[in-house]
Specification:
heterotrimer, A alpha+beta (445), B mainly alpha (323), C alpha/beta (336), B: 323 residues, mainly alpha, 14 helices, 2 strands, C: 336 residues, alpha/beta, Rossmann fold, 4-stranded antiparallel β-sheet, 12 helices, 37% helix, binds adenosine-5'-diphosphate, binds magnesium ion
């Protein structure tokens, strides 16, 4: 930092002042649109009358002692002058939205249990449960020895998970390729990338709720993502680069941005989970695979988009310029490449890809929430790190590995440990191959 | 709206055990980042390990208080070693990613229903403070600021721990050992070329800062007698970074004063906003939104601090850790 | 200087290294020739970056108690050779030893502890420490650097005093004494070079390796700096330094080693080497710079990228916008 050039630094600092304002202006503008929309939809039934329109949830998974989900069981929660019921879904999940935190009586209707399955000896039912500071309260019912329900064929489940994993991996790759490009060309580890992902889904939801036709809403949402990338670079990152800010402080600035933007989303959007149109569909059977059509669409879309990005990087002049900037910015600048322009394009593309990833993620989960992007931020980082920091194709492969790994391990890990496996693998890989899968060995000394 | 009361409430935040805990955890970050240049983005994990290490060992294994304390410290040290071995030879940002991932792994593990019997999953654990309370030497009654004897006791203990830790860190950092760390912060290859085992120093710093984090986890939980996993998300780490940058990262007092400012400002804005909303002066946001607005402000503050005053309130710009 | 930084090396009986006229080489003089008393021996040391052989040294001995200059055009591999010898980089093949001890696989800090201390071409001083703290950091055998002693000043206070005196004496010699309480960041580029060199001497090495020690140093200072380097020899130290200025080399070097494209192309006493046609070739042959400013530049760069299979966005320095440019720009300024 000793090398701050005097001239640009002044320009930079006034720039930043404008910037900080500008960024929030844009953000707020986007959100102002989203906010009334989100609120407007809350009272009217959203596409699926999901129980999650309240901020607080009592939820759980019903699984028998062989870990098989138990669907179709009715559960009732009463308390604080409220009564709500839910029926466990195909994966055994149930969730009851409640208006306020407090103590509730939760009762499982044993008459709805499948044949041969009963509550474990000593399992209290009904039982009283109390929220403790978090907006989600999970309640477990233990089931005792019963007749083991016929298990799904293992090979088939693996196949199903594999397809889901590829789809998930590719949508992660959309985000991580952008992250990796940004890292490669500017050196910034962008902790606000998760918020760029969230923006896509939030914007689509907002435009859609606002009555914009779906196809147009998608285009607007993606444009919003690209604009967010553009404005971020123009108003924040470029002035900071001009100032000669080092990489670690920039990383911390991105953390601040992530916090501010994420809570701004919550401020306007609220804590509820909303659904995009067509998010809840039944699985289709293709050969031996049973999969949600949305998952297949997502797979297809992200594969095409990533292939397109790859072709641009490898074949076009812009792609070469990008690689040159990533390889050696000084040399690239000396060879007449407009480094700032390349970086700007990278931010726009990164924002667009992240927004698309966000839309697909909203269909994959399914659901739109204010913190949905930050929930997969670490999975995105894991993909990028596995692939080797800053290598674009590495990010793609790394994300695929992470996505598939997460889905496959969910066969053996409980769902609330879904993301742990991938993070562990990332740390272990760093032990043995710190440069990631495709990265180069690091220069020493 | 009672401005005087709001100010008093904000002042009251200065001395809470939670402020002490934030200060201590941020002091750990100062050892990591401010003095050694180690990017630890998993301080929340260290705090969780301290809190759960103590809670689980005293509740499930019925060990005495002091043993529980030791277990918390040892567990945090092992965690630091585990994270340090694969990353301390690599570039700084690898440590950042591995620590944030590891802290999340810790949180997932203490949250999972599978381990309900041990960790209490999302509800967490409680009532592990009883033995601590039996050490309370202060007779029942009302103490300054209207504190009960327990309030007084937990504050005395919390701040004693913070002050003692601060003195130790100060002594360490003015020693030749601290000089080597400061050298590493700027250029580890230069330090290597002078014959110092950089890896070992970084590991020592990681462990020491991690232990401070674990102790902070205890200060955070023992006074309230309960621990919940949701408190140990990455946002906690980011708040600690804000605290660190607020006070000044290469100073001993900085993190502590930073924690005081952080909590006082949070309390002030919350109460002011609620007051305004209740009095009808502000109608366009709800009290829930007021709470979120504070965190937007935290994020903005973090950005502005980093850009305009990276040395913090106390820091010396010339000694600023960013190279 | 002798009263402070006396080295551990016991001088051979009755030898004054300043006037020692015994032959340096054993047998015929030429690239890779044997020395009477080598301190460093390297065999078949190679290091390549993406297909380019940065270093490819078949055999090299550095004579003990002498001043050896390592010269060669830019990109010849001098800095890389320094990195390899001192454990900062790992060669693809080869063995090398220092003072009879094999150094393969020995980490850089251990190499420094054995008495082989180097400086860096891109100066590495701790800008946020004072000049004096920089110097103290160099000193070895400090009990206070152990965590278990750090809290107790009684243990390390004495040694701290000793090294402070040692540092004071060195700073006077390098004309930095007036700056000793300033942050090193406030020094000029040349002063930083001096500080880095003085700090390396705090380690009391047997062999100092200086990578372009004179670059950016105020010309008024170079003469006394050269005298200091010469004096190091009097204390029994061995010096290996990289330098571009032939006058300097002729002035203080006892022996010159010439590198070009990773190889040792010539070595011998200064007078002999400078007349060697291989050396002249090496310097002239190195001028194949690409003019990147011209329109062909970018096309050439594209061609290089095309050819480089591995070049898919990202290497270590990827993204750090032109640190070299900034740093060298600063050094330019200092020179003025
Ligand atoms: N870390 C590195 N990565 C890639 N190439 C390198 C690296 N270090 C040096 N080189 C290349 O090796 C060759 C020798 O460089 P260097 O040792 O710095 O030369 P000198 O010090 O003689 O000027 C040059 O072609 C340089 O580009
Ligand atoms: Mg060089």
């Amino acid at each position: 930092m000793q090398s701050t050039p005097r001239g640009p630094s002044k320009r930079g600092s006034t720039g930043i002042r404008k910037v900080t304002g500008a960024i929030f202006a844009v953000l707020l503008a986007v959100l102002m649109i989203a906010a009334p929309a989100a609120q407007a939809t809350t009272p009217s039934p959203s596409p699926s009358p999901s129980p999650t329109t309240f901020q607080n949830n009592i939820s759980g998974f019903l699984r028998d002692d062989a870990r098989t989900p138990i669907p179709g069981v009715r559960i009732k929660a009463t308390g604080n002058g409220f009564e709500g019921t839910a029926t466990s879904s195909a994966n055994g999940q149930w969730s009851i939205g409640v208006p306020v935190q407090g103590t509730y009586k939760v009762e499982l209707d044993t008459s709805t249990l499948p044949q041969g399955i009963k509550l474990a000896e000593g399992q209290e039912n009904p039982r009283n449960v109390t929220f403790s500071q978090t907006s989600n309260l999970s309640v477990i019912f233990a089931f005792g020895k019963g007749i083991v329900v016929q298990q799904q064929d293992l090979g088939q489940s693996i196949l199903n998970r594999l397809v889901a994993g590829i789809s998930f991996g590719l949508l992660l790759a959309l985000a991580s390729v952008g992250l990796s490009l940004i890292f490669g060309t500017t050196g910034l580890t962008n902790f606000a990338h998760g918020e760029m992902v969230t923006l896509g889904a939030l914007a689509l939801f907002a435009f859609n709720a606002w009555g914009v036709p779906f196809w147009l809403a998608v285009i607007l949402a993606l444009t919003g993502g690209a604009a967010f990338g553009y404005v971020q670079d123009l108003a924040l990152w470029r002035p900071l680069r001009r100032r000669g800010m080092a990489l670690v402080p920039m990383m911390i600035v991105s953390i601040g941005l992530a916090l501010a933007v994420r809570y701004a989303y919550q401020f306007f959007f609220g804590g509820a989970t909303q659904q995009l149109p067509g998010a809840q569909v039944t699985d289709v059977q293709i050969g031996p695979i049973s999969v949600s059509p949305n998952t297949l669409w997502s797979l297809l879309i992200s594969a095409v988009v990533i292939a397109a990005v790859g072709i641009v990087l490898l074949r076009t002049r812009l792609g070469k310029a990008t690689r040159a900037v990533a390889d050696n910015p000084a040399l690239a600048a000396a060879s007449g490449i407009d480094v700032d322009r390349v970086i700007r394009i990278v931010w726009v593309v990164g924002g667009l890809l992240a927004a698309l990833g966000g839309v697909l993620w909203a269909y994959y989960r399914p659901g739109v929430t204010w913190d949905m992007g930050s929930q997969i931020l670490l999975a995105i980082f894991a993909g990028v790190t596995l692939g080797g920091l800053g290598t674009v194709f590495g990010a793609l492969i790394g994300s695929l590995v992470v996505g598939i790994f997460i889905e496959l391990t969910s066969l053996v890990l409980p769902p609330d440990l879904k993301y742990v496996g991938a993070l562990v693998v990332m740390i272990v890989v760093l032990l043995f191959r710190p440069q990631g899968i495709l990265g180069r060995r690091e220069r020493v000394g | 709206m009672d401005i005087g009361n709001i100010l008093l409430l904000a002042l009251g935040e200065f001395l809470t055990p939670t402020t002490a805990a934030y200060g201590l955890a941020a002091l750990g970050l100062a050892v990591h980042f401010g003095y050694s240049g180690l990017l630890n983005f998993g301080q929340a994990g260290f705090m969780a390990i301290g809190a759960y290490g103590f809670a689980i060992s005293t509740l499930q294994f019925k060990v005495p208080f002091i043993v529980g304390l030791l277990i918390a410290v040892v567990a945090a040290s092992l965690f630091a070693l585990l994270l340090g071995v694969p990353t301390l030879r690599l570039r700084a940002d690898y440590l950042a990613i591995v620590t944030i991932a590891a802290a999340e792994i810790v949180r997932y593990i203490v949250t999972t229903n599978t381990l309900f019997r041990i960790t209490g999953s999302a509800d967490g654990l409680s009532s592990f403070q009883r033995e601590f309370d039996t050490f309370n030497p202060f007779p029942a009654g009302t103490y300054i600021f209207g504190w009960s004897n327990r309030d007084f006791y937990v504050r005395v203990i919390s701040w004693a721990v913070v002050i003692l830790s601060a003195v130790i860190v100060w002594l360490l950092m003015r020693s030749p050992w601290g000089r080597v760390l400061k050298g590493i912060r700027e250029d580890e290859n230069a330090v290597r070329s002078l014959g110092k085992n950089v890896y070992s120093y970084k590991m020592q710093a990681l462990v020491i800062g991690g232990i401070l984090g674990a102790l902070a986890g205890l200060l955070f939980t023992i006074p309230r007698g309960s621990v919940q996993p949701a408190n140990y998300a990455t946002d906690l780490t980011f708040f600690l970074w804000t605290v660190l940058l607020l006070g000044g990262m290469s100073t001993v007092l900085g993190p502590i004063v930073g924690a005081m400012i952080f909590w006082a400002v949070l309390s002030l804005t919350q109460n002011l906003l609620s007051g305004l909303i209740e009095s009808g002066a502000v109608t366009f946001i709800s009290t829930v939104q007021a709470g979120q607005l504070r965190f937007i402000l935290v994020g903005v503050a973090l950005m502005l601090l980093m850009v305009y005053r990276p040395q913090g309130v106390f820091g010396n710009k010339k000694e600023l850790a960013f190279a | 200087m002798s009263h402070v930084s006396h080295t551990e090396v016991a001088p051979e009986e009755g030898v004054n290294y300043m006037t020692d006229e015994r032959p340096i080489a054993e047998g015929e003089i030429g690239p890779g020739c044997k020395k009477r008393d080598p301190i460093v021996i390297a065999r078949d040391v190679t290091r390549s970056f993406g297909g380019i052989n940065a270093v490819d040294v078949e055999y090299l001995e550095i004579p003990r108690h002498k001043i050896t200059a390592l010269i060669g055009p830019n990109g010849a591999g001098k800095t890389t050779l320094f990195n390899l010898l001192t454990g900062f980089d790992i060669p693809q093949s080869g063995t090398w030893e220092f003072d009879g001890r094999n150094l393969a696989g020995v980490s850089s800090y251990k190499v420094a502890r054995m008495g082989m201390v180097r400086t860096f071409q891109l100066t590495k001083v701790m800008g946020k420490l004072t000049v004096m703290e920089n110097m103290r950091l160099g000193a070895s055998r400090q009990q206070g650097e152990l965590l278990r002693n750090a809290l107790f000043k009684a243990i390390w206070g004495g040694r701290e005093k000793e090294i402070t005196e040692q540092a004071d004496a060195l700073l006077v010699k390098f004309k930095l004494d007036a700056k000793k309480d300033d942050y090193a960041a406030s020094l000029s580029g040349g002063q930083r070079k001096l500080l880095e060199m003085a700090r390396a001497l705090m380690v009391q090495p047997k062999l100092v390796m200086l990578d372009e020690p004179m670059a950016g140093v105020n010309p008024a200072l170079t003469q006394s700096l050269l005298d200091h380097i010469k004096n190091l020899k009097a204390e029994g130290m061995t010096v290996l330094f990289v330098e571009h200025d032939m006058h300097v080399v002729r002035h203080i070097a006892d022996w010159v080693v010439v590198m070009a494209e990773g190889k040792i192309v010539s070595e011998g006493p200064p007078g002999v080497v400078m007349k060697d046609p291989a050396v002249i070739d090496a310097y002239l042959g190195a001028h194949h710079d690409v003019d990147l400013g011209a329109a062909e530049g970018i096309r050439e760069l594209e061609a290089v990228l095309e050819a480089d299979e591995e070049s898919i966005v990202g290497t270590e320095d990827a993204g750090i916008i032109a640190p070299e440019v900034v740093v060298s720009g600063l050094e330019e300024e200092d020179r003025k």
